[in-house]
């Protein structure tokens, strides 16, 4: 499992467009890393500059806000706290924020 302390904007920008598998109980769902965006400058005590990840999935998909084990072939497994931010024409969108 990849440690959250070891990842940065650069870790994920290289993965933009790739699929992540999400475990939810017995189900495996696929989300695509649609966007990686910087959120400003880091605070003095922070590990990294803040950034966010925006994942997209099939329209109508609902996931409760929470921590999920997500896996990508290029990265391996990582636990991310995601929040659903939209469900529109382009699909369901989920966000993870790193500070």
How would you characterize this protein structure?
The protein is mainly β and 99 residues long. Helices cover 5% and strands 54% of the residues. The protein contains one helix and six strands. It has one helix at residues 9-13; strands at residues 19-24, 27-38, 51-57, 66-72, 76-88, 91-98. It has a six-stranded antiparallel beta barrel. A hairpin with a 2-residue loop joins strand 1 and strand 2 (27-38). The relative contact order is 0.26. The mean pLDDT is 93.
Write the layout of secondary structure elements.
Layout (H helix, E strand, L loop, with lengths): L8 H5 L5 E6 L2 E12 L12 E7 L8 E7 L3 E13 L2 E8 L1
Antiparallel strand pairs: 1-2, 1-4, 2-3, 3-6, 4-5, 5-6
In short:
The protein is mostly beta strands and 99 residues long. Helices cover 5% and strands 54% of the residues.
- Principal-axis shape: globular
Strand portion: over 45%
Distance between the termini: 20 Å
Number of helices: 1
Largest sheet: 6 strands, antiparallel, barrel
Q: Classify the secondary structure makeup into a structural class.
A: mainly beta
Task: Report low-confidence residues grouped into runs of 5 or more.
Answer: none
Describe the strand arrangement of the main beta sheet, using strand numbers: 1-2-3-6-5-4
User: What's the total number of strands?
Assistant: 6
Cα gyration radius (Å): 13 Å
């Amino acid at each position: 499992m990849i440690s959250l302390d070891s990842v940065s904007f650069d870790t994920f920008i290289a993965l933009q467009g790739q699929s992540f598998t999400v475990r939810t109980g017995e189900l495996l769902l696929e989300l695509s890393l649609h966007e990686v965006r910087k959120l400003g400058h880091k605070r003095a005590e922070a590990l990294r500059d803040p950034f966010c990840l925006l994942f997209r999935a099939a329209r109508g998909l609902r996931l409760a806000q929470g921590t999920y084990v997500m896996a990508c072939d290029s990265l391996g497994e990582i636990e991310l706290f995601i929040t659903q931010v939209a469900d529109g024409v382009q699909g369901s969108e989920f966000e993870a924020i790193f500070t």
